[in-house]
Amino acid sequence: MLENKVAFVTGAAQGIGYAIAKEFAAQGANVALADYNEKEVKEVAKKMNAEYKGEIWPVVADVSKSAAVDKCIAEVVEHFGKIDYAINNAGGGILKPFAELTDEDFNKTVNVDFFGTFYCMRAEIKQFLKQGEGSIVNAGALGSIYNPGGMGAYNAAKNGVIGMTRAAAVDYADKNIRVNCVAPGLTKTPLNAGGFLEKILPTVPMKRAESPEEVAKVYVFVATQATFMTGQTILSDGGVSVGLKG
């Protein structure tokens, strides 16, 4: 159990981030919920505080802005005194065929998924160096290995996340700081609404989508239990990456 531990989760107001926050809370941790949507993150925190023993604390942050991330991390540390586990989950993307991507499309996707992760990692690692330890799990994507098309900006950002994960892992492995990545497959989230899930489902060997609760357990395990693992990207994809089955 994770009593007296502090987990920091970005993009925590819905989807996978919310499921990760709940999994940490279910194991007894205090959880800082970070999201750009102030109303939703406060509502989620209120709901979780009524359900779990640990403290659930909301903080507003737009991860695409460096100063906002630094301020967010400082607020969490001031409130809880530390951060033990950081889950950089916030993300999203504009899906279009490659040549149809505008500068705005590409920049918007990369600013959240790539730069947002970078800003969070940098601030978290600085805090972990002060503490003498810490664990980061970044959100990758199956699209970094296999994609159905129309994911150029998203893939560029998520491949960058994998590269940053490996680089930081090597830089700080001897400082008791672990940095890993989890790459979910087809998951039932609001971002996959609008027919995308149904379109891709036939290619999944397990013939079903992953629930946010399933992949949340992977994130929390990697963050808390895989204590000799660093620099790795763990796929939770129902078998897609090892063989398509249409």
From TrEMBL:
InterPro entries: NAD(P)-bd_dom_sf, Sc_DH/Rdtase_CS, SDR_fam
Keyword Oxidoreductase included in the entry's annotation: yes
Lineage top rank: taxon: Bacteria
Protein family (similarity comment): Belongs to the short-chain dehydrogenases/reductases (SDR) family.
Name of this protein: SDR family oxidoreductase
Short name of any one Pfam family annotated for the protein: adh_short_C2
Keyword field contains Ligase: no
SUPFAM superfamilies, A to Z: NAD(P)-binding Rossmann-fold domains
Molecular function terms, GO-annotated: oxidoreductase activity, acting on the CH-OH group of donors, NAD or NADP as acceptor; quinone binding
PANTHER family: 3-OXOACYL-[ACYL-CARRIER-PROTEIN] REDUCTASE, SHORT-CHAIN DEHYDROGENASES/REDUCTASES FAMILY MEMBER
GO biological process: bile acid metabolic process; fatty acid biosynthetic process
Organism, as annotated: Lactobacillus amylovorus
Upper classification of the organism: Bacteria, Bacillati, Bacillota, Bacilli, Lactobacillales
Keywords: Oxidoreductase
